[in-house]
Amino acid sequence: MIMKAIRKLVAFASAALLLGACSQETVLTPDEAKQIDPKNNEISFGTFVGKSHQTRAISAAVNGGVPGSITSAQALAQHRGFGVFAYYTEDDDYLGTTSVTPPTAVALTSPQASAITPNFMYNQEITGTDAESPVWTYSPIKYWPNGNATADDQDPAATGTPGGKVSFFAYAPFVATTGSTGITNFSANSATGNPTITYKIDPSGNVVDLLWGTAGTNGVKAQTGDVVQNGDYIAVDPSGTLAWAERPFPVNANLTKMKTTGKVQFVFKHALAKVGGSSVTTTPATTNGLQIVLDIDKSDGSESGGTYDNTETKVTVQTIDINVRSKVDANNDGTPDKYLTAAGNQGVLDLATGMWTIDKTGSNVTDDLASASTMSHRITSPKSTGTSNATLNTAIAEPASLADGGAAWDGLVNGVLTTVQNVYNAETNPLIYIPGTYPELQIAITYITRTKDANLAKGYSEVSQTITRTITFAEAVKLNKQYSLVIHLGLTSVKFDAIVSDWDPDIDGDGDVDTSDSNEIHLPINVAP
DSSP H helical segments within 217-266, as ranges? Predict the structure, then answer.
């Protein structure tokens, strides 16, 4: 059987949470706990991030650490830890907060602090040891306000004024000095309102993950016994109503003095949206990441469901090239209508609400494809040449070279199958997007189809081809989501049909038998004399 060219390359998105089900947190050992003076009330931090088996050395880079996804507390420490902004609001709640359970919509009527600056911590670096459960430290040490009616480190008869609220907001990986891509700006230490960071996509494809710190299971309150402080939700408009559709996570707002073993724990969410990437194990199992599958046609013309003999035909992938662009809904009508330019391919993240703001005006957007910001993402096999952002799964990758005849065939991998497989062998730089944008991906795949045939000199037919397809997401991507893409390689068998005609002469090809001209010969054939 000889396989023909690709029939289709179809991909679309299925949202799944990026963080795995397994997770970990940092906990002080008994010996470490003893080292803390119970009268000092020092503020300690903990983290909660999905596990992975990353084992990179701690990066010495100032501007954002090493590229790649951060999927464990250890990887977080290896990527320079995290940064914290903290606001002390005395007896008042932080601006625009509420502790009601979603999805109830509520008016914000509680006392709220206004015109507060990050007066307790500003981009405070928190570093961790290079261990599966890092120990997090920082300097200078800060202490809980002692505004408690009673406290675990005071005489039970001691009294004080209530209040002493501190709100903590975090991001990762920590950046001391902003750069031209990645984290490019912070709100000022004198600015009122929520802390923000500006993040710009690196067109080279060497992206650094960005995490947003939401509320975890914090230590218990010192003044009211064993009451866990779970944080509060922050409203976009402090004078309005909390919109739960836009507020998926609480943050560490309005925390009060904790018992001496307590800590402020951050559950880090991925602040960006990820498209494709390596598959992750989920329960129940789902199709995720960037994957590939064969669609074999059936004899009745159906585009998939046909039989496929992997011992007779194999399909291997040489290179997958993806040109990545971002579209936005500049007209706010629900349809992406503009491209972001290199200058505009950035957004501002509010660390209190998790909301992204994108400037869709002026030189930040364009109708011209040539002026759009384009990032290249190349996934290569041993046969590929040129630069690479990642390597192909060895089960589908074209080898660097092949022997002749049967030895060549026997040396081939199984290749692409009729069951989905992960595209990546190792994902080094994920495809990331600013939430609120619409991904556009131009995907070009070069692949080789081989079919055994003893009549051929090599012992098989061999066809190499490249097919390109552009897709644009119909919906804007969201924070902390991974979007799946499945590449369908459609193989259509070469089919034959035969019609036997009479031997009646038809010299001029008009369909009629030409008796008068049947003995004439024209050279070249079909050229009139």
Answer: none
Rounded to whole angstroms, the maximal C-alpha distance in the chain is 128
Same domain, residue pair 218 and 302? no
| Structural tokens at position 182 | 């990645």
**CA–CA dist 347, 370 (Å, integer):** 22
Place of tokens 């703001």: 357
User: CA end-to-end span of the chain, whole Å?
Assistant: 44
Q: Do residues 49 and 72 lie in contact, with contact meaning Cβ atoms separated by under 8 Å?
A: yes
**How far apart are alpha carbons 433 and 488 in whole angstroms?**
23
Report the pLDDT value the prediction gives residue 308, as an integer from 0 to 100. Answer: 83
Residues 6+ apart with CB under 8 A from 342: 203, 373
Q: Which residues pair with 427 in a beta bridge?
A: 390
Tokens of 353: 């609400």
* Residue 179 neighbours by CB under 8 Å, 6+ apart: 63, 64
* pLDDT score for 152: 42
Whether this model's pTM surpasses 0.90: no
How many angstroms separate the CA atoms of 314 and 101, rounded? 55
What is the DSSP code string of 150-183? S-TTS-TT----S---EEEEEEES--SS--SSEE
Residues 285 and 258 in one domain: no
- Rounded Cα distance, 161 and 363, in Å: 54
Phi-psi region of 457 (alpha: psi -120 to 50; beta: other; left: phi over 0): alpha
Q: Which residue has the higher pLDDT, 124 or 283?
A: 124
Q: Is residue 284 part of a domain?
A: yes
Q: Within 13 Å, how many C-alpha atoms sit on residue 192's CB side?
A: 6
Parallel, antiparallel or unpaired: strands 375-380 and 82-88: unpaired
Q: Is 522 part of a structural domain of the chain? A: no
24 and 63, same domain (yes or no): yes
pLDDT at position 278: 77
Tens of pLDDT along 145-178? 876 444 444 455 555 555 688 999 999 999 998 9
Q: What's the 3-state SS for 225-274?
A: CCCECCCEEECCCCCCECCHHHCCCCEEEEECCECCCCCEEEEEEECCEE
Q: How many domains does the chain divide into?
A: 2
Amino acid at 91: D
Query: What does the alpha-carbon distance between residue 289 and residue 440 come to, in Å, rounded to a whole number?
Result: 16
7 shares its domain with 39: no
Give pLDDT tens digits for 235-286. Answer: 776 655 555 555 568 899 888 888 878 889 888 888 999 888 777 665 555 6
Instruction: Kindly report the backbone phi and psi dihedral angles of residue 215, in degrees, each rounded to the nearest multiple of 5, phi listed first.
Output: -75, 135
- Note whether 24 and 9 are same-domain residues: no
